[in-house]
Structures are given as C-alpha cells and as structure tokens.
Write a structure and sequence with these properties.
The chain is an alpha+beta fold. Among the domains are: about 100 residues; about 100 residues, Beta-Lactamase. It contains 6 helices and 5 strands. The chain has a 5-stranded antiparallel beta sheet with strand order 2-1-5-4-3, with helices on both faces. α1 packs antiparallel against α2 and α2 runs antiparallel to α3. The chain is rod-shaped. The N and C termini lie far apart (about 200 Å). About 0% of the residues have low confidence.
C-alpha cells in the first residue's frame, strides 16, 4: 500500500504558515514593548534576541513553504540549488542567537552599571539643583531684607532686578520694572537721568556716586545719595551695574537745623560781646558822673 505525501505536505505548509504568523506577531509585540523605553539596554537585548529568532523562524518556515511549492510544481532540482542557501541562513541565524546569548550576561552587567551611573548622576544633578535653588532663595531673601533700595541693570540700562524697598520708594510693582528700560517705566521718568548708570560706564571698575533730589511716590522729593558699581562674571567681563539709593533727607534736615543753631549761637555770641562793650562804656560814664556829682556843691 502506498501512502500519499499530501497530508504531510499540507501539515508542513500549515505548520510553516502558523510559525510565520506567530513570529510576526511576536516581533510586533516586542517592537511595541521596546519602543516604550528606548533607552533601556535590557529591552535592546531582548528586542534583538527576539528579532534573531523571528529571522530564523521566517527563514526556516519560508524554506519549508518554498520547498513544498517547488515540489508541487515538479521543480525539485531548484530546491536542491536553494537548500544550501537556506541552510546557511539558518546556521548564521543560530550563530547570531548564540552570540547574543553568550554576551547577555555582559550586556546585563553593562546595563546595571549604566543604570547605576545614571542614578548616581541623577542624584548629583538633583543635589546640585537643590543647592542652587537654596542659594538663589537665600540671595533673594537677602535682597528683600535689605531696608534700602537696591537695583541692578545690564550694560544697556535694562532692569534685571530690584528689592522691595526700591519698589516701595517708587510706588511701582516689580513686574512693571523687570526687563524694561528706565524710560519705559512711567514711575521712573521723573527720576531720569539721575538713576541712569550707563552714561558712567566709561568709569567701569570704579564707584559711581551722585547726590541730589529724587522724585518718588506721591509727588514727593527726597534728598538721596546714589552709589553705583559695575559687576562682572567669572571671566571678568562687565555684565551690568548695581545701584544703591540712600535717603539722606533726615540728615539734610539735621544739618540745616545744626547750621541754624550755629547761626543763632554766633548771633548770641556777637550780641553778648556788644553788650559787654556797651557795659564797659556805660560803667565808665556812670563812674565819672558819680565823681562829678560829689565835687559839685549841692
């Protein structure tokens, strides 16, 4: 009795198609899983390992399908020609899978080391970030706690920052001052060019000092001294100016009062001297008059 090869060939073809479908499905699932964390080295390893198995499955199953198609078309001699190539492809795929598996431990160790370095780097960055934030907060609190007006500008006169005392003196919100030129700020226009430090940039490296009257809030003028100095970066390049305003109105008032007191003291001293001189003359007159009265007969 002769058995037909048709069921065997059909089973081989269906098995090859099933393996191809499973391989393609596995590749699609692995690709989606891999794309979620492209930076994960372990997922790289599993993706390439799966890809190698998929290539092997496609090569093996594809070879079986091609064999059955050629046999059905009485092209056995063509399969004899192609079979060494498919066998070589399968062998190369096995070599790739073996190499990937052989170095999987090293890949895992490298992955763990890289992950450890990454975590350490993230911790260092987070620590440095916290330190920088704390330093910036300290500098801001220090600026705000200074009771005298302080401001700083860039080399062109653009306001980069100020403290509460400065905004309170001008009755202006900080948001209306930062990143604006002095002439663009309504509250500062009466103060120009007194607050403009840029004309003195030729004196870079030296202290700028001005004394005068400053128009501030509610149409009030006060006597102030403005100190300005350039500031530089780590490379020594000038980046702008820092200005400090000191209210000397009370000092000026005290100086005026002291001057008035000195004037009164001078007048009192002069009046005392004059009265003393007059007393001396009147004493002599009174003395001679008294002598004359005794010599004259009654």
């Amino acid at each position: 009795m002769t058995l037909s090869w048709t069921p065997i060939r059909l089973d081989d073809a269906l098995g090859s198609i099933t393996v191809l479908a499973l391989a393609i499905t596995a590749f699609v699932v692995c690709l989606r899983w891999y794309r979620r964390r492209l930076w994960d080295l372990f997922r790289h390893y599993l993706f390439f390992f799966t890809l190698s198995l998929v290539v092997f499955a496609i090569s093996r199953s594809g070879g079986h399908l091609v064999k059955q198609i050629l046999i059905l078309n009485n092209q056995d001699h063509l399969w004899q020609i192609l079979s060494p190539f498919t066998g070589a492809l399968n062998t190369a795929t096995f070599i790739v899978i073996f190499a990937v598996s052989l170095y999987s431990r090293r890949i895992g160790m490298a992955h763990r080391e890289i992950t450890s370095y990454q975590n350490d780097l993230e911790n260092i960055v987070a620590k440095r970030t916290r330190m920088l934030e704390e330093q910036l907060n300290f500098q801001k609190e220090l600026m705000e706690s200074i009771p005298i007006p302080v401001f700083f500008t860039n080399n062109d006169g653009l306001f980069n920052g100020c403290n509460k005392a400065f905004t309170k003196m001008l009755a202006c919100e900080e948001a209306n001052i930062i990143n604006r030129m002095p002439e663009e700020i309504k509250e500062l226009r009466p103060c120009l060019p007194f607050l403009d430090l840029c004309p003195d940039k030729k004196d870079a490296g030296g202290m700028i000092k001005r004394e005068g009257r400053l128009h501030c809030r509610r149409d009030k003028e006060i006597e102030v001294i403005l100190y300005g100095t350039p500031f530089t970066n780590q490379a020594g390049e000038q980046k702008g100016y820092i200005g400090v305003i000191i209210d000397i109105s009370e000092r000026k008032l005290l100086e005026a009062q002291i001057l008035q007191t000195e004037k009164l003291e001078t007048v009192a001293t002069m009046a005392g001297g004059i009265s003393h001189e007059f007393n001396n003359i009147l004493a002599a007159i009174m003395g001679f008059a008294e002598l004359a009265r005794h010599k004259i007969d009654p």
